[in-house]
Design brief:
Helix content of chain B: under 10%
Distance between the termini of chain A: 38 Å
Shape of chain B: globular
Number of strands of chain B: 11
Shape of chain A: globular
Oligomer: heterodimer
Largest sheet of chain B: 7 strands, mixed
Strand content of chain B: over 45%
Number of helices of chain A: 0
Order of helices and strands of chain A: EEEEEEEEEEE
Number of helices of chain B: 0
Largest sheet of chain A: 6 strands, mixed
Distance between the termini of chain B: 36 Å
Number of strands of chain A: 11
Chain lengths: 117, 114
């Protein structure tokens, strides 16, 4: 039972255009969400996060949107650059105070983004 | 400004041998998480430790796997009597506190069981 789903295994975008990566979740106890970027043979690198009390968080070219009612979040990268080509993982956690959660992250399977020059 | 360090980066073991994976958290971080990534999959939580304590091992296989985070030294993930299905990338992450701080990941150890 996958609690965090990234339904698009891959996405191809032209350099300079917007990349939109999507993520859905099923557990209503999740209240903290993160995006990680991963290159082959490296560990995940933290990109941006959002708490459930917000619906948007922006950091430079990266913006994360959260729609709690739809249990959906998205990562927008604009403008996309060839160096953004990587696998992007969405992750979620529940507050350590709720339901026995210890704050460990639940990951989606990732979306491979290719930005073409 | 050292990040999370893991060693070895690559480890080859024959079936039945033991594998020991090490993780040193970022400076100032006292919380360590271990995750496993199988090919074409996302990362799966295994165990969460603080110094000298296992807080949550709900993701650990019941047999052959153990983890520790001693008072001094790195966290160790130990796999006894490895089998081919243990071949995976094992990532360690650390955070400064139990609250929802961002977890920062190491480069991983790629275990190959022959």
């Amino acid at each position: 039972d996958q609690q965090v789903k990234q339904n698009s295994p891959s996405l191809s975008v032209q350099e300079g255009r917007i990349s939109i990566l999507n993520c859905d979740y099923t557990n209503s106890m999740f209240d903290y969400f993160l995006w990680y970027k991963k290159y082959p043979a490296e560990g995940p690198t933290f990109l941006i996060s959002i708490s459930s009390i917000k619906d948007k968080n922006e950091d430079g070219r990266f913006t994360v949107f959260l729609n709690k009612s739809a249990k959906h979040l998205s990562l927008h990268i604009v403008p996309s650059q060839p160096g953004d080509s990587a696998v992007y993982f969405c992750a979620a956690s529940a507050n350590p105070g709720y339901g026995g959660s210890q704050g460990n992250l639940i990951f989606g399977k990732g979306t491979k983004l290719s930005v073409k020059p | 400004n050292a990040g999370v360090m893991q060693n070895p980066r690559h480890l080859v073991r024959r079936r039945g041998q033991e594998a020991r994976l090490r993780c040193s958290p970022m400076k100032g971080h006292s919380h360590v998480y271990w995750y496993r990534q199988l090919p074409e999959e996302g990362l799966k939580f295994m165990v969460y430790l603080q110094k000298e304590n296992i807080i949550d091992e709900s993701g650990m296989p019941k047999e052959r796997f153990s983890a520790e985070f001693p008072k001094e030294g790195p966290s160790i993930l130990r796999i006894q009597q490895v089998v081919r299905g243990d071949s995976a990338a094992y990532f360690c992450a650390s955070s400064p506190a139990r609250t929802q701080e961002t977890q920062y990941f190491g480069p991983g150890t790629r275990l190959l069981v022959l």
